[in-house]
Amino acid sequence: MEFAELIKTPRVDNVVLHRPFYPAVEGTLCLTGHHLILSSRRQDDAEELWLLHSNIDSIEKRFVGSLGTIIIKCKDLRIIQLDIPGMEECLNIASSIEALSTLDSVTLMYPFFYRPMFEVVEDGWRSFLPEQEFELLSSLTDEWRLSCINKEFSVCPSYPAVVIVPKSVDDEALRKVAAFRHGGRFPVLSYYHKKNGMVMMRSSQPLTGTNGRRCKEDEKLINATLRAGKRGYIIDTRSLNVAQQARAKGGGFEQEAHYPQWRRIHKSIERFNILQESLIKLVEACNDQSHNMDRWLSKLEASNWLTHIKEILTAACLAAQCIDREGASVLVHGTEGTDSTLQVTSLAQIILDPRCRTIRGFESLVVREWLQAGHPFQQRCAQSAYSNSKQKWEAPVFLLFLDCVWQILRQFPCSFEFNEHFLIMLFEHAYASQFGTFLGNNENERSKLKLQTKTLSLWSWVNRPQELNKYKNPLFEANSLVIWPSVAPQSLQLWEGVFLRWNRSSKFLDEAYEEMVTLIEYNKQLKAKVNALRRQLAELETDDGMQENH
Amino acid sequence: YLFVQVENVRLLDRVSSRKATLGTLYLTATHVIFVENASETRKETWVLHSQISSIEKQATTATGCPLLIRCKNFQVIQLVIPQERDCHDVYISLIRLARPVKYEELYCFSFNPKLDKEERERGWKLVELSAEYNRMGIPNNYWQMSDVNRDYGVCDSYPTEVYVPKSATAHIIVGSSKFRSRRRFPALSYYYKDNNASICRSSQPLSGFSARCLEDEQMLQAIRKANPGSDFLYVVDTRPKLNAMANRAAGKGYENEDNYSNIKFQFIGIENIHVMRSSLQKMLEVCELKSPSMSDFLWGLENSGWLKHIKAIMDAGIFIAKAVAEEGVSVLVHCSDGWDRTAQVCSVASLLLDPYYRTMKGFMVLIEKDWVSFGHKFNHRYGNLDGDPKEISPVIDQFIECVWQLMEQFPCAFEFNERFLIHVQHHIYSCQFGNFLCNSQKERQELKVQERTYSLWAHLWKNRADYLNPLYRSDHSQTQGTLRPQIAPCNFLYKFWSGMYNRFEKGLHPRQSVTDYLMAVKEETQQLEEELEALGERLASLQKVQLNDNKVKSKQQDQNKELGRSTFNISLANTPQEYNNDLKSFPSRSPSQGDEEDSALILTQDNLKSSDPDLSVNSDQESGVEDLSCRSPSVGGCLPSEDSGKDSDEAVFLAV
How far does the signal peptide extend, from start to end residue (chain A) (predicted)? Predict the structure, then answer.
């Protein structure tokens, strides 16, 4: 297929672009296969808008006489307006955008066409390999092994080719456990807590069904992670009610009778369309132009977004508390084990493990616990807050995770190596990107798409020093301890950097950030100068002393 | 004066009911004091009687008799007293102690910071309003000071020195005052040098349905003419229109545009003190909820209407600032009596217009000008003496919150930080200093407040290092000229201030404070600058000496270690909350590690070392309680607790 077929009108002059907090810009609108470009003809400062078609969530058109208006709502939540003279041009542009922003073939997406304008120093596709992670683990314990049972993606289509499992469980047993778990997602290692050797595992629900089916290998596998005489916790991210209902569909949960060394805790975290609707309502509230304070708070409340944040954070804190405070190992699962499960396991690691609060460590966490763990990004992030498709598989699961990280970052502003912009950047790229990192739903699909050779990794770009500087938190002072966030409503706030980003001017806040950077930079410079002078003085004084001894 | 002493009292933790500390409760003439039994800490919680807003005795249980003390600085203390009789004694005593009937009973008359007479007088002179009007550029061709009220003869709730248009004769002023509620005639609050526009304030006119007053009309005309650049005057009535209309039936009301030449009349609906009191009450109920859900909290916050009221006050201030700065039009502001909403709105507008009021000194001046001198009824509003509960209302609290909301939107614009606002709020209720005593200047003079008490401003000024906003720079663009908050749509800009209303629930706040971090960085930077200079000099002299004479040797061994901010390694125990109740019932095992293990390297204001002697009260915890009775009140300073304590859990209790 040629993109040219979809582009009915490649260029229109005298188009006016309206964006909040910017003066209107008049210029030429061009459509390419992957971008919508507006460039003003003024020579002095050619205003340009480059918008990826894949970032477009929905469009609306309006006509007043022959003047057409297209309102473009983006997945990054921004809304822009284009005034296009000429009804035909406007209709052509609108239908072209519509077609180009809803291409159904992944291989037509921009990452397959993008050619970097920078030199790739480190190939991001090879930056975070399970083997490296295992090597790190091996230096701490020898109770685990790397299993290649899934190298053809046949045992579990949503797992990576290699996973970490207890040493005492062989591949044959794993096969049986996989058959007992939803989607073949048998329990694997998610996190090893250095401090006390406790672990966090994740899986999908066991397929106990209404008859209370059991699987000896499954019981053996998870018991293998317990120390003698110790008990563990199973955190089920569904309410007891939902978990019970799942039995009718062949799913279920671990019966105490069969898992006597484990205690099950149900922590309900919402899924799918409930989350999507929550996002839609929240963004609607944020974009509400009315002047009524009451409506704002009740709309914020009615969106339930912060309730979801509180639920997810609470479950993650609980998992962390079991591991660190109760000295117990933990197994986390919901139904499929690809959504709420990953929210809990990844957030618990941020609380427990200082490494996850560094830039590299966080990237590694996203790769391990989201990409390799098989969170279906392509399905979940197909549409954002302006979607009207109402597809069951669309849900802002990853955005909720990022929001939770932001909440912890806000409570511990000096404990993270990255800043808010880093999280916002990840949000943007999960929904629309020139990089292949977030394409596909799991490693299996990614390998079939040959993303590693055909597209560039986000990490190849982000991890260059000039880019990284934008994402470094000037307040960072390595904090090696566990950080316990507060989950009280008073402590949780709306993430303005994402949700109000286009609705309020951030000028004064940006200025404050710059001021902060300046203060800290100046301090560092002074420190370097003073230290240098001290050394110089010390040398001089030693010389002096030596001369005297002669 | 040791009135009561009760042993084996339990102090409950509001957040976690599992945590309670056992100790002894003391009531003195000025404070409620709880001293923990644990011998190594003997943590003390001090609460001033004047901070107590309500005492509630709850039904006796098996463990004892619970007593709930709510404070005006939003601290809530829950005690369980073993014996019902003791509890009753404490309750009865506290009711009496928390409701003094004479000013002399208030803490400021016994508080003695050991300053000599001269220091005290200098303290009171720190803020001088005549100097402030000079700073504004007054007197000038249009405005002058009038002594018409020199013996409070015209208006007893006004200051003796009032500033009025030059063309307003004593006859006009007196005539106008007779046509205004409580004779509060229009007087200058703020003068905008750049374009001659001004903000004046008054009470409502006694217009009823048709009454007129020539002098009052002349007065408004004089104000308009004092701004030759504009051909009209805004009259802003800060009440809801319905309230203002209801007042007409009582012979009061608002200006009729037909009777006054060239005025534009404008209602800005800010609710009255009763609505505000109940709104705060509702919001505090939300703050007190035990483990509320997100919906409980947001619904409660919304139903309280609190943020809506804050926004209304801000909107009024923004309207006036815009009229003055952008349109160059003078504004007369009033409500009913002109001492509550009018004070709020005038001071918000001044703050937006003039960067001086955003400095620490300027803020003191602003409160002195728009609140203290113009007869804001501190005693009635904040219940210093036992009085009519219907007079109590968080009027200045709302103003202080407006300032905080602005600080959130303009982080570089204010010289002072959040802690400064919290301490000002605290002392408005504490009665430790004389500034906010009584209902008017006249009463304060009669009471000889300046001779018998100390000024808060001097106290805060002495400790100003603790109150500086590290992001403030006098040459920063945000510190220049008028602040222009975003107007539409901006509901989301107004946020719940947990730092104030939940300030004693340390666990709810960010565990690391950016402000404190930056303050430490700045302090270190200053030391580095000094050291750099010293090192440079030494290096130069050393090199010189080496060139000339090798014999000279300098010994400085202490300088060889690398630098590091030493202020940072103070830790605060950071403990998990109750994320799940189920955990309690799980067969318990001994924790794998000691609790101290997790004390994170956390920076909060708790850890910041402080120059304020009052703040050291809590570090002096070993001092026995046996001699509390003879301890001078001067030692028991009354600073809010966040300045002390190392542990989030401790801090909840440390009140004094």
Answer: none
